[in-house]
Amino acid sequence: MTPAQTTVLIISGYLALLLALGIFSGRFFRGTSSDYFVASRSIGGFMLLMSVFGTTMTAFAMVGSTGEAYRIGIGTYGKLASYSGLIHSACFFFVGLKLWSFGKRHNYMTQIQFFRDRFESNALGYLLFPILVGLVIPYLLVGLLGAGAVVKGVTRGAFPELFEVSGGSIPTWLTGLVICGVVLTYIFIGGVRSAAWANTFQTIVFMIMGVVAFLLISRGLGGFAEASAQATRESMVREGRMTQLEFFSYGFIPLSVGMFPHLFQHWLTAKSAKSFHLTLVAHPIFIMLTWVPCILIGMWATGVFPNAPSSNAVLGMMVGKFAGPIMGGLVTAGVLAAIMSSLDSQFVCLGTMFTQDVVVHKFGKDRFTDRQIMWMARGFVILIVLVTYGLSLLEPRAVFSLGVWCFSGFASLFPLVLAAVYWKRVTKTAAIAAVLVTASVWFGLFAASDFGKERGFLVLGAQPVAFIFLACLLTIVVVSLFTRAPSEVTLSKFFPKK
Fold first, then answer.
1. 144: which of 229, 385, 442, 495 is 20 to 30 A away, CA to CA?
2. Helices (H) and strands (E) in the chain, counts
3. What separation in angstroms does the CA of 308 have from each of 146, 311, 334?
């Protein structure tokens, strides 16, 4: 057996273990749609921390950040990881806790149910549904592209006769197919409860393997100081590779966690408000532990592979060169863990949104049995996965670039959820107008960037998200001041007098 084939065997073993865990966790599934979609709101502090953190860490964080550090250097950590560490926890505290309390009080399963009630508008729900689903699809694409790139990088030469076109590597289409199959299997069995179990396990795996990869690559390069000395000088400084305005405008992007529909669903699974405490404290620490190794590996790669064929492939190439076949397989399993821990939540979330926000909302909750609702959710997830998988076969964009555009869309809608939670005067008309304006500006700028192909696309020197965010915010404020305020019934529901 060749070293590359050994790596493939290790990866296959990990996927089999994950599948077994998913099947085992299905034994705790209670058979109701409430348990399938929000785990009967019974998840405790530790599992909430691991599932929330695992959900926010994707190929964008592991593969994308390494590739971006390879491309523009150490500034990658400052512009994303440092902001994320602070802003994510702030969003969990100021928005997540509020939404959890509304969800528990009014039995919500999706964020669209909340927005419909808060703004007294069915139309807003039908408007938001395709926009949120449309933004989740590139998020799924990021995962499939990242998984394919990493596996291809570490399995070079494994099967030269079988996969001649890809140089003997496991082709990206096969990696995507296997990943989707594994994740779909365990979420079909236990829904969000299985996703929480799998996320907990996978978060532990990818954090440990991230540190292991860092240590192995560092040792392979002669130690931390020697590895850093081999990185190009340009990768060690921010000046000249990113303006201050570009750097500061990146600070808007982590606000996307406030509007992620799959994260909203994880918040609803919490047993109590106390379940959030550990997440608020540990999340920034976990981000630092995950991102620092990825950024450094990307910088070190500038000296090892000065002409890498793709920034997406850098992490896989570094692991393949320095980790050895067995550890390389384990580290790759850790990267796949980070990717799949986000995919499973997104799959469950899409099924929940379709059944609750479209089917049940349209036909009534008594029209279907729990069993029928869960099967409809699974059917919709399969449809979206097929669409995403098909796009992944054609997708030429870098993981980081695609991720930034996806997160920019969610982040730009953040003023909507913030106003809904804290501003009594925000109106239904303003909410609808803000969603339309945000979607229009986002699409216009996305098209101007050649749909994400133009890396480093800026508007007046700043990230596009800054302008889309401001367009949303101004629309909410101005339109709210000139349209009819919400009813007293709605205000008393969401802002009860103490």
1. 442
2. 24, 0
3. 16, 7, 22
